[in-house]
Design brief:
Mean pLDDT: 87
Oligomer: single chain
Number of helices: 3
Low-confidence stretches: none
Distance between the termini: 43 Å
């Protein structure tokens, strides 16, 4: 789900999971370990600014060419 707050798009935990292409449980683990950008509480629900999640994704290491050792 996306919500707008002051012109900023906010993602719920499912939206973050979809963007990261992981499960909701993985997002919960990342949040618990402090590996995600800070979230906001909106009406008691965790929300992340979409632009901060997109910046987080861009900053992730890329593994374009992975060699498999035999």
């Amino acid at each position: 789900l996306r919500a707008r707050r002051g012109g900023m798009k906010l993602l719920d935990i499912k939206g973050v999971a979809d963007k990261l292409r992981v499960s909701v449980r993985t997002v919960e683990r990342l949040k618990a370990r402090g590996e995600l950008p800070p979230h906001r509480l909106v009406l008691g629900c965790h929300r992340w600014p979409e632009d901060e999640i997109e910046a987080f994704i861009r900053a992730l290491p890329r593994f374009d060419a992975v060699e498999v050792a035999r």
